[in-house]
Design goal:
The chain is α/β, with parallel strands linked by helices and 266 residues long. It is 38% helix and 18% strand. The protein folds into two domains: 3-199, Vaccinia Virus protein VP39 (Rossmann fold, 3-Layer(aba) Sandwich), CATH 3.40.50; 202-263, rRNA adenine dimethylase, C-terminal domain (Helicase, Ruva Protein, domain 3, Orthogonal Bundle), CATH 1.10.8. It has helices spanning 3-13, 29-38, 58-61, 75-83, 98-101, 117-125, 139-146, 156-164, 202-211, 219-222, 229-239, 252-263, and strands spanning 25-26, 46-50, 68-71, 87-89, 106-111, 130-138, 165-173, 178-179, 186-193. Strand 3 (68-71), helix 4 and strand 4 form a beta-alpha-beta unit. Bound molecules: S-adenosylmethionine.
Amino acid sequence: MNILEVKKICSELGIQPSKKLGQNFLVNEIVCCKIVDECIDDNISNIIEIGPGLGALTRDLINIDKPFSVIELDNKLAKYWQERGVEVEHIDALKFPWQEKIKEKTLVVSNLPYQISSSIVVELSLVPHVSKMVFMFQKEVAQRIKANKGGKDYGLLSIIAQSYWQITKLVDVPPRAFYPPPKIDSRVLVFQRLENTEFCNKDFINFVKLAFSHRRKLLSKNLKEYRDEMVVKNAFNRLGLNEKIRAEQLSVDEFQRLYLELKNEH
Ligand code: SAM
């Protein structure tokens, strides 16, 4: 979609792009094509788009030969797509019952509203049948997701995302690719689910969240709420971890090994 088409539909529908709903509509057709091409995938059974907006991606996604539906919070836009015969869930994507509804290999695609971007990655990580995601983020969120140990961006989101997904960068997107243009750069990432089911549970997420609950404290102190101090100390010894280590000093792999070591100890 180009900027003239977007402005035309906005005025026909009486839509003023809403900041609260993160409504920065994509107006760069090359970026749209790259995202849609990534959704043509024989290994998936159906496609869900979060936030179709005015249809920059939707108008091509509906032509892929797979069952397709959208989740849209905005009243006018939900109605707009319903009237065009698209299956619409008119609900906040964070309140959609993903676990209950997703029973087949599903690809979720979105130019994500920035307010929900980190939470949706965490939420969908725990839905085993979501096997692929193609998401546009604020560049700094994308950097946090892909960050490695030692860098300033590394933390909770990096460990959670990398524990469930193989993540690749698809394309960087400048502000002028949107209407209205945001103040920040964006980046599209592609997530392919890893086959490590031992982390596909809330307990692992809670463990990582507790590990980072007080960033200045030692990891062993933060984990006191997860397991008894001695149990944590013994696990550190068995894995050869320094007791004075902080959460952000542990690699994703070390985090996972520590979790598996502590999981069955009470
Ligand atoms: N896909 C369109 C595009 O690329 O131009 C629109 C993307 S716009 C960044 C975000 C879209 O998500 C808007 O349509 C907005 O109304 C919708 N949205 C915002 N918050 C939402 C939420 N919590 N759940 C579902 N949709 C939401």
